[in-house]
Write a structure and sequence with these properties.
Distance between the termini: 38 Å
Low-confidence stretches: none
Number of strands: 8
Order of helices and strands: EEEHEEEEEHH
Structural class: alpha+beta
CATH superfamily: Nucleoside Triphosphate Pyrophosphohydrolase
CATH class: Alpha Beta
Radius of gyration: 15 Å
Oligomer: single chain
Length: about 160
């Protein structure tokens, strides 16, 4: 059965300039030197019977170290990534101080095939990007969420 995950695309609209979105960079040695196409929305797999909004809020807390801002999410739909995982995205207007990032830690075998487990932060950094820059930073399958958010903001 294909895996499903959900995440929050946090956005803010500065007084001057283009709206910005918060993206996260995966931690660990595999991602250390990757940039364009490597970033993601804070997201994770749905557990049991939880819905996308519950999973997205939980994952935001785990990956960034604080709960998402209060507010009404805007459903940006879902996409299927190259590996087969379906990602459901909910946009939320709010702010987050990237200096307060405190990601959970995951264990993985490193170096590969050594049997040696090492711990790494799931997210090694978070940054605010304008919509146009975010489109290049995001995993290519997730970049459609930027287009959908832009359309939602233009409709307001």
């Amino acid at each position: 059965m294909p895996r499903a995950s959900a995440g929050i695309l946090l956005f803010r609209t500065p007084r001057v300039g283009e709206p910005e979105v918060l993206l996260v960079h995966p931690g660990g040695p595999f991602w250390a030197r990757k940039d364009e196409g490597a970033w993601s929305i804070p997201k994770g797999e749905l557990d049991g019977n939880e819905g996308p909004w519950e999973a997205a809020r939980r994952e935001f807390q785990e990956e960034l170290g604080s709960p998402p801002p209060k507010g009404q999410p805007v459903d940006l739909g879902q996409v299927r990534q190259k590996g087969g995982k379906t990602v459901h995205c909910l946009a939320l207007n709010g702010d987050f101080s990237i200096t307060s990032l405190k990601s959970n830690v995951v264990a993985m075998q490193w170096p590969p095939k050594t049997g040696r487990l090492q711990s790494f932060p799931e997210v090694d950094r978070a940054e605010w990007f304008t919509l146009s820059v975010a489109r290049t930073k995001l995993n290519p399958a997730q970049s459609i969420f930027i287009d959908r958010l832009r359309a939602e903001l233009e409709a307001l």
